[in-house]
Specification:
With about 100 residues, this protein is of the alpha+beta class. About 25% of the residues lie in helices and about 25% in strands. The N and C termini lie far apart (about 30 Å).
Length: about 100
């Protein structure tokens, strides 16, 4: 039995966020430079969870892009929805997962 089964996803998320003056850094598990956490038995990228937490939904046809150059950032002020084309137009927007 593991304790995280009894802790909400939101509580687990906040336990792994280190807020700085600019970016909110993910300190948990990382894959290909992006933070990740398990939600309902499936892995989810931390910046996508942050966007959901702060905005309520993600359009299934759009990606969640970073306006900063930090893929481990989960600051909702640095996240926006966009298309695959948007990530190439905006030079500071990282590729999304």
């Amino acid at each position: 039995m593991t304790l995280h089964r009894y802790i909400s996803a939101e509580q687990r998320f906040w336990a792994r966020v280190e807020k700085t003056d600019n970016c909110w850094l993910w300190s948990g598990s990382v894959i290909q430079g992006y933070g990740q956490l398990k939600i309902n038995g499936k892995m989810m990228l931390a910046h996508r969870f942050s966007f959901l937490l702060h905005n309520g939904s993600i359009d299934e046809n759009l990606m969640v892009l970073h306006s900063c150059d930090n893929p481990q950032c989960v600051n909702p002020e640095h996240l926006s929805q966009g298309t695959a084309q948007d990530k190439f137009i905006r030079p500071s927007a990282h590729r999304e997962h």
